[in-house]
Design a protein that fits this description.
heterodimer; A: 113 residues; mainly beta; 11 strands; B: 110 residues; six-stranded mixed sheet; five-stranded antiparallel sheet; 55% strand
Chain lengths: 113, 110
């Protein structure tokens, strides 16, 4: 079965621009979470969506936002990009919080110049 | 905030040797996961541990969970080069947020 699909795979943006990343979860999965991975900070939680509702949010500035659509696909948006936003952004999906763990997508590598 | 500590951060081991990676966490949780990440790639799920005393094995890797000690271990038996990767543990306190360890970068030397 198809896995978690993230697009685009690579992105280069200029400081001050905004960016939108997309995530299509595994069919049937209703929970989508986003993580930022950097060499210095490791894996940090951004937000979690379930049935179009944000259920949890990490400690990131308001420039980071997301949403989930009725088909469970999710997008995250970063406005006014900073150099420090350069990272691998990972999306993960699951059925819910029942404890089965999350399946991660291949990630979007964002570089801000 | 829940803290997850992994050690060692870096591990270089010879093929055929055994070693254990440790994952300690700071608050009660019955759910712990192990993931593998190859350079430039995403996270691949290795083990799902959902109760105290859980033990899972797959090939040369075995993971265990002691919720009372707030400790999980990932044991590597007779390492081979293909196991070279970064390994992460992640604690799930049922909030929808995983708390990841710092990762252990494993290099297996022929």
């Amino acid at each position: 079965k198809a896995g978690v699909t993230q697009t685009p795979r690579y992105l280069i943006k200029t400081r001050g621009q905004q960016v939108t990343l997309s995530c299509s979860p595994i069919s049937g999965h209703r929970s989508v979470s986003w993580y930022q991975q950097t060499p210095g900070q490791g894996l940090q939680f951004l937000f979690e969506y379930f049935s179009e509702t944000q259920r949890n949010k990490g400690n990131f500035p308001g420039r980071f936002s997301g949403r989930q659509f009725s088909n469970s696909r999710s997008e995250m948006n970063v406005s006014t990009l900073e150099l420090g936003d350069s990272a691998l952004y990972l999306c993960a999906s699951s059925f819910g919080r029942q404890g089965g763990g999350y399946t991660f997508g291949s990630g979007t590598r964002l570089t801000v110049v | 905030e829940l803290k997850v500590e992994q050690n060692p951060l870096f591990l270089s081991m010879q093929e055929g040797k055994n070693y254990t990676i440790y994952c300690n966490y700071s608050t009660t949780s019955d759910r712990l996961y192990w993931y593998r990440q190859d350079p430039g790639k995403s996270l691949e799920s290795l083990f799902v541990l959902l109760s105290n005393g859980a033990v899972k094995q797959e090939g040369r890797l075995m993971a265990s969970l002691d919720t009372k000690a707030r400790l999980s271990t990932l044991h590597i038996t007779a390492a081979v080069h293909d196991l070279s990767a970064t390994y992460f543990c992640a604690v799930d306190p049922s909030t929808g947020q995983f708390y990841f360890g710092t990762g252990t970068s494993l290099t297996v030397i022929p």
